[in-house]
Amino acid sequence: MCGIVGYIGTKNCIPMLIEGLKRLEYRGYDSAGLGFLDENSKPKNIKVKGKVADLENALNGNGHFSNIGIGHTRWATHGIPNQTNAHPHSNKEGTLLLIHNGIIENFGVLKKALINDGYTFYSDTDTEVLVNLIDSNYKKKEDLFQAVRYDLNEVEGTYGIAVFHKDYPDQIIVAKNGSPLVIGIGENENFIASDVNALIAHTSKVVYMEDHEIAVITKNGFKAKTISDEKIKKEIQEVKLTLEEISKGGYEHFMLKEIIEQPESLRNSIRGRLLEKEGISKLGGLSGYIDRIALSKRIIITACGTSWHAGLVGEYMLEQYTNIPVEVEYASEFRYRNPILSPDDTVIFISQSGETLDSLAALKETKRRGALTIGLVNAVGSSIARETDCGVYLHAGPEIGVASTKAFTSQVAVLALVTLLIGRRKITSPQDGMEIIKELKSLPEKVEKILQLNNEIEKIAENFVDADNFLYLGRGYNFPVALEGALKLKEISYIHAEGYPAAEMKHGPIALIDENMPVVFLAPKDSVYDKVVSNIEEVKARGGKLIAIASENDTTIDNLVDYSIKIPSTIRMLMPILNVIPLQLLSYHIAVKKGLNVDQPRNLAKSVTVE
Ligand code: AGP
C-alpha cells in the first residue's frame, strides 16, 4: 500500500529518495512527500496530492542538499487523499517528521487523550496521532529512541515507520509491526524501504525488520531492539534482484512484460525441482515437514484475489492426486470465522507479495491453533515467507504490475509440484508422476506458442472496448480460470465482469444474456467439452457475443462462436496455466485501448497491507 524510503549518509539524499519512491509507484498511491534536514539542519517537509513527478516539481529549484531524509507514497486509509493528509507528518514545531505505512487502530482513543493534553491536529490521519504521541513523550523523556519505543507499546494496529528529529541530525528511527520494512546496508550510508525494489540500485545487503522491532540507524550502522527494549541480533542478507529485473525492459507496461515473461518465470518455478525418473518433485523448503503434510486429515488453502483463484485450482489438483480433502478460504473471511483447526490440518498460504495483511492475519490465527502452515510466496524474505513453518518460493521474479499475471501461473505450477510431492506418497502412480513432470516441462514452450497469438487477441479486444459487462464461464479446473479472467478485466479496464461455473448459467445468470453481453468460454477438448458446447449453444440462442479459448485441434468450435482463440493442450491439472494467458492478453489490450493506467489501476495497490 504506502511506500516508504529513507537515507542517512554522506551523499545528497533527495534524488535517491525520489528515485526510490518511483520504484514503489506500482504499489498504488494518491499522494507523495519528502522530509529532510536542510543544509542548516532545519527540517523541511514537502508533500503533494498527486504523483512522485509532482513532488519532484515541487522540489525543483530549491537546490536542497541533505544527508538525511525520508520519503512516502500514500494510499489513503484515514483521511481523503490531499496534501494535508499526505506524509511526512510533523509535530506543531515541525521539528519531528514521521512517515507511516499501516493503520493505528486505537488512534481515536489516543487522539482524545492528546487533545486533552492540549494537542491540536491539522490532518484527518491516524499517523498524526503517532507523531504527537512521540512528541509528547519525547518532551518528557528527552530521548527520542525511548520515546518512540515507549509509544509503540501504546499503539494497536500495524506500522512500518521512519522518524527523525531536528535534535538528532545523525539518526533515523524505524519500527515495524505488520507492514514491511527493510534496512539497506551501504558504505558510510544506510537506506530504508518498505520493499527491496526501492533500494537495490544502491545495495544488495539488507536487513529485514520483524514485528515489534525498532532500530536506530546512523550512516555507520544500526542498532535494533524489540519494542520491549530487549537487544536483538539482526542478520544481513544478500538480495539477488537486479535493477534490470525491476525495470520495464522496453515494454510499454510492466503488465505486458510480465505476461511475456511467463515462459521464463515458469522455467524458474520448476527449475531443479523435478526428479524425472522417480516421477516426483523435490521441494527443499518442505523437507522435514513432508511426512506430516502427507498425513494431514485436511488441507486448507487460504489467500486473496488472484492467489485465491490459484488456490481453487490447487483444490482440484490436491483432491485428484492426493485424496486429501481440501477447502479453499478467502483469508479475510477465514481469520474472522473462528476457524476449526487442529494439528492434523495443513494450511497453505498463497501470496505473491507475502505482505497481504488479511493473509498474514489468517496465518497468525492458524499458528495459534496449531495447524501446520506452508507459504507459497514470490517475494523472498517477506513476512508470510518468514512466518510460515515451511514453504516454497515461486521464483517468478519481481511482479510490478498491480494486476497479477506471472505470479498466478507460477502459483499453479508450484501447487502442481506440491501436489506431486504429496500425491506420490498417497495415490499417484509413478506413471502419473512422470506424466505430470513431462507436461510441466512442456509448459514454457506451449506458453510461448500462445504468446504468438498476441496480435490476434489484440484485434479481438478492439471489438469489446465499449462493453459494459462480461461473463467468463468454465468447468472443473477452468472454473477458477473464469474467475481469474473476470478479475483481470475488472481491475484494469473497470468493465464489470463475472466468472461462473459454466453449468451455473441456467440457475440465473443466463437471464443476463442478450446481444450486448460478451461471454468468454474456457472450452478445451476435455471430458466436459460436450457440456461446455451445450452451454455455448444456450448463450448463442440468446444472442450473446461469444469468445472461446479452445484447443488448437478443435474444428467444430469456430461454427459456434464469434471469436475462437486456439491454444495447445496439456493435462487437465495444468490447463489453467495455458487457458489464462489469452485472458491476460485480452484484458490488457482492452484496458490499453481504453487509455487506462494498466500498471497502476485506480483504487488498487500491488500489496494490500491494510484490512
Ligand atoms: C490480482 O491481480 C490483484 N492484484 C489482487 O487480487 C492480488 O492477487 C491480491 O491482493 C493478493 O495479493 P498477494 O498475492 O500479494 O497476497
Please describe what this structure looks like:
With 611 residues, the protein is of the alpha/beta class. It folds into three domains: 3-245, Aminohydrolase, N-terminal nucleophile (Ntn) domain (Glutamine Phosphoribosylpyrophosphate, subunit 1, domain 1), CATH 3.60.20; 248-447, Rossmann fold; 453-601, Rossmann fold. It is 34% helix and 22% strand. It contains 18 helices and 26 strands. It has an eight-stranded antiparallel beta sheet, covered by helices on one side. The protein has a six-stranded antiparallel beta sheet with strand order 5-6-7-8-12-13, covered by helices on one side. Helix 17 links the parallel strand 24 (518-523) and strand 25. Helix 3 packs across helix 4, helix 9 (305-322) runs parallel beside helix 13 (406-423) and helix 13 (406-423) runs antiparallel to helix 18. 2-deoxy-2-amino glucitol-6-phosphate binds next to helix 9.
